[in-house]
Amino acid sequence: MWMTRGSAWPSTERWSNRMPPGCCKASPSPLHAHSQGESGGREGGMEMRSSQLSRPALPLLPPGLARGQRGVSRLVVGTDFSLRSEFALARALRLPLAHGSVFCVLHVASVLDGQEGPGGTLSGARCLRKAVSSVCRRLRNRVDIDVREELGRGDPVEVASAVARMSGAELVVLGRPHVTYPVRALAEDSTVRRMVRQLGVSVLVVVPHPVRPYGRPLVAVDFSRESRRALELTLRLCPAPARVDVLHVVDTAAQEAELRRDQAPAERWLLLRQEREYQARVALGRFLAPYREAGRELEVRVRCGEPAEEGILAEALERGSDLLALAMSAVEARTPLTEQVLARAGCDVLVSRHLSPAS
Predict the structure, then answer these.
(1) E strands within the chain?
(2) Under 8 Å between Cβ of 176 and 205
(3) In this structure, are 258 and 327 located in the same domain?
(4) Which of 97, 177, 247, 266 has the fewest CB atoms within 10 Å, i.e. is most exposed?
């Protein structure tokens, strides 16, 4: 859980130029001028003040086949200072960051946050400041990166959506508890579920502790425009020489139901699957041709059966994938397949979503 709901708009703060030697500079947040700023005083030798920044609308992915080498240029990491949030922050620091990228750390506070809790518990603002200081130390050799902090109040999903929209974020990173058995579906009020449904940008859900950059990603595609974007975003998160497995799941449920009604022999069932798998491999080869010509190593994977359990999750388990990527439609916010994968996957899950300019 992030925090309880309140009513105020997210505040913006930034670090002054007087940072410790060797520490990277954190810049002002691009929230609107009506955002409520936190205290403007000095704390721990650092000066805080609100600011605003205008920016043009930028597409999620620029045109061209060399997109996979650029890295991420604008990302938001959500934190509630829990262990899973620490995992999300650690993963975000291991992502390939483009030159001049923006790294924003977001905390959504409760109504009572900002006061000293029992036993001398630090307030959300001070904890956020410590988290941003840690990020600056980790990125001290990347002076080109803009490290920002956002402290908001209210509903976590609404605040995150506003921050992502105003900062032009390409990716929102958040943590999720480990899968427990027996596996249960995500609760209707689950923060992860609501984030994936309501945010208009791609979401990276981090599960295990990250120990290295992604080395064996698996991308599920259905040959749609959305799944192509999911593949391209994965190529950016996993630059060469990482090998990417690309999976297409052939759903033969309708044809198999007809064979069952006709009491067809086993040979017809086998022939059906062989034909559909061959067609899928040919189509997937054409789908991946531009990226292979650009020098990326992509492995074709085809399975038959139910998409989530028998397809995506089974393939990820067999391959030992450390990242599962799949696309979400820009118009459909409730996809059972995506939520099944989120609830059951033991590795990180990337949900690629790109809204059209008209949306």
Answers:
(1) 11-13, 42-43, 46-47, 72-78, 97-109, 146-153, 171-175, 202-206, 217-220, 244-250, 298-304, 323-327, 348-352
(2) yes
(3) yes
(4) 266
Are residues 141 and 224 both part of a single domain? no
Residue in 87, 17, 69, 84 with CA at minimum distance from that of residue 46: 17
- 33 lies in the same domain as 130: yes
Domain coverage including residue 31 = 11-175
Per-residue pLDDT of the chain (359 residues; tens, 9 = 90+): 444 444 444 544 444 333 444 445 555 444 443 344 444 443 444 343 333 333 433 444 444 433 334 789 999 999 999 999 999 999 999 999 999 999 999 999 875 544 555 443 457 889 999 999 999 999 999 999 999 999 998 899 999 999 999 999 999 999 987 776 666 777 777 888 899 988 889 999 999 999 899 999 999 999 999 999 999 999 999 988 889 999 999 988 888 888 888 888 888 888 988 999 999 999 999 999 999 999 899 999 999 988 998 899 999 999 999 999 999 876 555 678 898 999 899 999 999 987 654 44
For residues 176 and 206, give the distance between their C-alpha atoms in angstroms, rounded to a whole number: 6
Q: Which residues of 216-242 are buried (b: 16+ CB within 10 A; e: fewer)?
A: bbbbbbbeeebbbbbbbbbbbbbeeeb
Based on the structure, what is the number of domains in the chain? 2
Is residue 91 located within the same domain as residue 166?
yes
Domain assignment of residue 18, yes or no = yes
- CATH number where 287 lies: 3.40.50.620
Do residues 222 and 283 both lie within one domain?
yes
Residue 102 · residue 139 · CB < 8 Å: no
Distance, CA of 193 to CA of 343 (rounded, Å): 9
Whether residue 200 contacts residue 355, with contact meaning beta carbons closer than 8 Å, is answered with yes
- For residue 157, give both structure tokens: 């999903």
Type of residue numbered 351: V
Verify that 226 and 128 share a domain, yes or no.
Answer: no
